[in-house]
Amino acid sequence: MSAYIIVEIDVHDPVGYEEYKKLAGATVQAYGGKYIVRGGQTEVLEGDRQPKRIVVLEFESMARAKEWLNCEEYREPRKMRHRTAKTNMILVEGV
Predict the structure, then answer these.
(1) Long-range contacts made by residues 23-26, C-beta under 8 angstroms, separation at least 24?
(2) What pLDDT does residue 95 have?
(3) Would you state the pLDDT for residue 92?
(4) Residue from 5, 20, 2 nearest 68 by CA
(5) How far apart are CA 27 and CA 74, in angstroms?
(6) In what order do the strands lie in the sheet with 85-93?
(7) Does domain 3-42+51-93 have CATH number 3.30.70.100?
(8) Which of 14, 35, 57, 73 could be a cystine partner for 5, CB 3.0 to 4.6 Å?
(9) Facing residues of 88 across strands?
(10) Would you list the domain boundaries of the chain?
(11) What is the pTM of this model?
């Protein structure tokens, strides 16, 4: 069953975050993932949450998504993301 990683991102180092993006994409692809949403325009329809940037990744399963997140190839890019942005991330199973 497909699984989705949903990330809410508040970038505080735009230059460093651009470098992160260059490295992260190849690791997502290597684990069979794909970007569904990558920082497009957002509009709040209900509630008072004001996300600055949203990213949604699709993987073949929850297990595969976690393999990507914790893989050796993503270790350094992940550290870059933590240095350049504040993130909230969830994993959700699709239908």
Answers:
(1) 23/76, 23/77, 23/80, 24/74, 24/77, 24/81, 26/73
(2) 86
(3) 98
(4) 5
(5) 6
(6) 34-38, 53-59, 3-11, 85-93
(7) yes
(8) 57
(9) 8
(10) 3-42+51-93
(11) 0.93
